[in-house]
Design goal:
Blueprint (H helix, E strand, L loop, with lengths): L24 E2 L6 H12 L4 H8 L3 E2 L7 E3 L5 E3 L19 E9 L15 E10 L4 E7 L4 E2 L8 E2 L3 H18 L5 E6 L3 H7 L3 E5 L1 H5 L5 H11 L13 E5 L1 H8 L7 H21 L3 H12 L2 E3 L3 H11 L9 E5 L5 E5 L8 E5 L1 H13 L19
Parallel strand pairs: 2-13, 5-10, 7-14
Antiparallel strand pairs: 1-14, 3-4, 5-6, 6-7, 8-9, 10-13, 11-12, 15-16
């Protein structure tokens, strides 16, 4: 691989003693906009087959790209296969036909693609959803967007969310598959720009806003609302929040709340806010009438873009998920506690705050979480200034 993930050499297997920290597998919780669409969609789909096609036809389907291109560190457009075929590996990726791994992405702009200058959408929310046919479980692995990874076509590691801007979902999928040694070929994404409409469609959400979250001038709630207002051409003071505490937020307020990063523990606190909003979305959806639920699901489906074909989505919804009494999820957040360093470093992109994970130490935990066992794997290159957690 052009980023020297294995430097063309075979490596010894890495196997660690079992044991997943319970503090990292939190209570069963719903995460990601796309998961909300799946879960609340089930409530509306009780209308059965007469509405099946109506909902499925709202999704934006993109064909599998047999030869996706990316932007390399020279600013050139190159084939992804050109910069990923040089890695020599000894061990195959985990092959469990009954486990379906799907990459779910929330992007942060109107554009879904990327330009030859390397500019484009950043991935604001990165989640692997693992559907297990054998035990009917759904497991969610969330990756902090500021985590450093190696990206094909680039010598130096960078934040994982930037992969989307250099090669769209295909490149981000490739990066995650290689970094975690997983077999993932399906993705779906939703643009956070549309979240305002989706949240308004269900009547808003309930969250607890602290005073520091509300008033922080360096990226607090009201500051982010003002930014959104100016970007959308509205009055600067529209929808500002004037009180702290538990309250109902409309779509614009909720999206701003989900994007607060400068209050609390950075990406981790931000993930908790997003989960709070998404759980409230599910709760609010369940209070809607059946006809309103269907209308809301249609609205949500129209904002989803995926390379999963229609028949497979139909199976996920109408065969697997529809047979579950109530969808619940097990959740794992990466990096694991104690397996990353965070801060501003001078070695790469001086002055940039980043998370430097020990990916090799976490791969066995991810395997055990998703598959229930650990498997020998080829180690990936270490991230500079990452801890050694073995």
């Amino acid at each position: 691989m052009a980023n020297n993930l294995s430097k063309g050499k075979k490596s010894k297997p890495m196997v660690r003693e079992p044991g997943i920290s319970k503090r990292n597998i939190t209570k069963r919780i719903i995460i990601s906009v796309l998961l909300v669409i799946i879960c609340i969609g089930l409530g509306a789909l009780i209308f059965a087959n007469v509405f099946k096609e109506r909902v499925l036809n709202k999704v934006n389907y993109v064909p599998l790209d047999p030869n996706p291109t990316i932007i390399d560190d020279q600013g050139s457009v190159v084939s992804l296969s050109e910069v990923t075929n040089s890695e020599t590996t000894e061990f195959p990726l985990p092959d469990y036909s009954y486990v379906h791994n799907i990459l779910l992405i929330g992007i942060d702009s109107r554009a879904k693609g990327y330009s030859e200058s390397g500019s484009g959408s950043l991935a604001d929310c990165i989640v692997i959803m693992s559907i297990n046919e054998n035990d009917s479980t759904i497991k969610i692995t969330s990756i902090a967007r500021d985590s450093y990874v190696y990206v094909p076509g680039h010598d130096d590691p960078m934040k994982i969310n930037a992969a989307m801007s250099y090669g769209g979902p295909e490149l981000l999928l490739s990066v995650i598959s290689t970094t975690l040694r997983l077999d993932i070929d399906e993705y779906a994404y939703v643009n956070f720009y549309h979240m305002e409409k989706i949240i308004n469609a269900i009547g808003g959400v309930y969250v607890h806003v602290s005073e520091s979250e509300r008033t922080n001038v360096a990226g607090g709630l009201n500051e982010l609302i003002r930014d959104a207002n100016l970007r959308l051409g509205d009055s600067e003071d529209m929808y500002l929040v004037y009180n702290s505490g538990s309250q109902k937020l409309n779509g614009r307020q909720a999206v701003a709340y989900a994007r607060i990063r400068m209050v609390g523990n950075g990406d981790f606190a931000r993930s908790n806010r997003q989960m709070e909003i998404l759980q409230s979305m599910v709760d609010q959806f369940m209070t809607l009438s059946a006809s309103s639920q269907l209308s809301t699901v249609e609205t949500m489906a129209s904002h989803v873009t995926t390379n999963i074909n229609k028949d497979q989505i139909e199976w996920y919804f109408f065969s697997f998920l529809s047979n579950m009494e109530k969808p619940t999820f097990e959740y794992l957040q990466l990096p694991l506690e104690g397996c990353s360093n965070q801060g501003i470093y001078s070695d790469i992109r001086s002055g940039e705050w980043s998370i430097r994970p020990d990916w090799n130490a976490m791969i066995p935990t991810v395997q055990e979480f998703i598959f229930g066992e650990q498997i020998p794997f080829d180690p990936v290159d270490s991230i500079p200034n990452a801890p050694n957690c073995e």
